[in-house]
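Ops channel
N.P.: pipeline sanity check, posting one input/output pair.
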């Protein structure tokens, strides 16, 4: 297998490169969680005080979905907002995710990923310099937003790897 940062030939060069970063991190995430049973998916660390892999997967897809619609300049449709849930619960924590299998979570994440891919087909390299509203009234370029999707995914992969290590040791 040859790894590269070349995107789909139907994407513009820089858009394609950024998309390929997101895609390779998403594929890596799927490899990291492969084979998790329900108990491991919902495991919250030795003291049960961390976010579970299920929570982190839902969080990642929620953040990615928000970026897709932010880049589109649209609000997330109500049905998607209800399905993927809020970014944080009433206690400013990641919402609990229980009783949802890994297969269902990855199926739902695949849908979000397909929305991002479709969006990247529509973007031009010139579009990447446009700014969108980002947390607390700040602005970010679309280019930074797509990079952030990849970086954020990789960041939480480390947490999932740690949970897997703890689970193997404590169960």
């Amino acid at each position: 297998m040859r790894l590269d940062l070349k995107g789909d030939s139907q994407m513009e060069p820089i858009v394609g490169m950024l998309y390929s970063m997101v895609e390779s991190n998403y594929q890596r995430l799927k490899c990291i969680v492969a084979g998790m049973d329900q108990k491991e998916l919902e495991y919250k660390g030795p003291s049960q005080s961390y976010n579970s892999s299920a929570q982190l997967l839902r969080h990642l897809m929620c953040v990615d979905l928000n970026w897709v619609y932010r880049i589109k300049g649209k609000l997330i449709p109500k049905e998607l907002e209800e399905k993927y849930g809020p970014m944080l619960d009433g206690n400013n924590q990641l919402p609990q995710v229980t009783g949802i299998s890994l297969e269902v979570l990855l199926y739902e994440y695949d849908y979000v990923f397909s929305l991002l891919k479709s969006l990247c087909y529509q973007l031009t390299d010139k579009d990447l310099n446009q700014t969108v509203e980002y947390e607390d009234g700040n602005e970010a370029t679309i280019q930074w937003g797509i990079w952030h999707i990849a970086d954020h995914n990789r960041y939480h992969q480390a947490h999932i790897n740690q949970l897997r290590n703890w689970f193997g040791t404590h169960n």
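N.P.: looks fine end to end. The chain has a mean pLDDT of 94.
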